[in-house]
């Protein structure tokens, strides 16, 4: 059973400047609630019992968002407003399951994951990248059932336009297991159109094995001078660890670029 999830949130969010000069992108509202709450709701609905948020000193506002008890208690006492007490109850529900770890230098997603090493208890854990919202179907829930069925690591995947492969991690299929599950042969971070082994892109939901930490300990910087989680995954695949690409059923919304963020807010408000 997958009980723990980790969410890297320590990046700079430069693609959403100027909004992210003071507000962490994960707290930017999407139809009245921070993007991060959609991700936490997905975890809770998928049966996750503990969520580790990787933040940085610059993004302490995320911690304050979930730990502002005194503020709420005072307001509720003064105002006796049902809506506010319901909102506080919701925040308390999140607070109960979250834990914070720090990555103060944004060296890459792989380095962020490494910071959670001593907190991971089971052999497998879920990782969610909050820029990637998936609506209509709970992607984490789907991934957990794929993990149960194949007893393997899983990465969420989606077919993308060949011309855009250099934006994503792209994998090569070793074997098609059925219409939505593929055994992965290798994965490359942001390949050129020429070097891309397919048009199957990795999206921000992963079920990773604990062994990933051994690879991350030794992982060198890759594309763009960052330590990428996909490079450590590729090392595990070379060690014959089973990874499955799962084409999820829901609708993917990109919230990490300005254009994507604007479109996603419009899309969700129409839901
Ligand atoms: P991205 O590289 O896509 O986003 O990281 P970013 O760095 O936040 O934003 P840009 O590229 O400057 O616009 C994907 C996820 O991994 C986290 C980010 O916070 C984001 O949620 N991340 C990235 C870390 O936690 N640490 C890092 O060193 C890098």
What does this structure look like?
The protein has 271 residues and is of the alpha/beta class. Helix content is 34%, strand content 27%. 38% of the residues are buried. It is globular. The model has no long low-confidence stretch (mean pLDDT 96). The chain has helices at residues 35-45, 61-66, 69-79, 82-97, 109-114, 139-150, 212-218, 229-238, 258-269; strands at residues 4-8, 29-30, 33-34, 50-55, 98-102, 124-128, 132-135, 153-159, 169-176, 181-189, 200-209, 243-247, 251-254. Bound molecules: uridine 5'-triphosphate (UTP).
CATH topology, by name, is Spore Coat Polysaccharide Biosynthesis Protein SpsA, Chain A
Which strand order do you get reading across the main beta sheet? 8-11-9-10-12
Net shape: globular
Order of helices and strands: EEEHEHHHEHEEHEEEEHHEEH
Task: Name every ligand kind in the structure.
Answer: uridine 5'-triphosphate
The stretches of 5 or more residues where confidence is low (pLDDT under 50) are none
CATH class: Alpha Beta
What class, by secondary structure content? alpha/beta
- Which percent bin holds the helix content? 25-40%
**Could you report the average pLDDT, rounded to the nearest whole number?**
96
Overall structural domain count: 1
CATH architecture: Alpha-Beta Complex
Largest sheet: 5 strands, mixed, barrel
In quaternary terms, these chains amount to single chain
The percentage of residues in β strands lies in: 25-35%
E-strand count: 13
Radius of gyration: 19 Å
CATH H-level superfamily title: Spore Coat Polysaccharide Biosynthesis Protein SpsA, Chain A
Query: What is the straight-line distance between the termini?
Result: 31 Å
Number of helices: 9
């Amino acid at each position: 059973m997958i009980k723990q999830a980790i969410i890297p949130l320590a990046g700079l969010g430069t693609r959403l400047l100027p909004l992210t000069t003071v507000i962490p992108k994960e707290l930017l509202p999407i139809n009245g609630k921070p993007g991060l709450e959609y991700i936490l709701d997905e975890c809770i609905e998928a049966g996750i019992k503990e969520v580790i948020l990787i933040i940085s000193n610059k993004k302490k506002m995320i911690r304050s968002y979930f730990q502002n008890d005194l503020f709420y208690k005072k307001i509720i006492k003064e105002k006796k407003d049902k809506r506010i007490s319901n909102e506080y109850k919701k925040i308390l529900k999140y607070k109960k399951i979250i834990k914070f770890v720090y990555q103060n230098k944004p060296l890459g997603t792989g380095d962020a994951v490494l910071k959670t090493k001593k907190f991971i208890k089971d052999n497998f854990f879920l990782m969610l990248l909050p820029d990637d919202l998936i609506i209509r179907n709970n992607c984490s829930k789907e991934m957990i059932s794929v993990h149960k069925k194949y007893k393997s690591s899983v990465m969420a995947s989606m077919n993308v336009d060949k011309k855009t492969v250099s934006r994503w991690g792209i994998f090569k299929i070793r074997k098609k297991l059925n219409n939505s599950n593929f055994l992965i042969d290798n994965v490359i971070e942001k390949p050129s159109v020429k070097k891309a082994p397919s048009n199957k892109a990795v999206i921000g939901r992963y079920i990773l094995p604990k062994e990933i930490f051994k690879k991350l300990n030794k992982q060198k910087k890759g594309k763009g001078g960052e330590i990428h989680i996909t490079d450590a995954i590729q090392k595990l695949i070379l060690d014959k660890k089973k990874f499955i690409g799962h084409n999820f059923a829901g609708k993917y919304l990109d919230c990490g670029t300005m254009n994507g963020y604007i479109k996603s807010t419009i899309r969700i408000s129409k839901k």
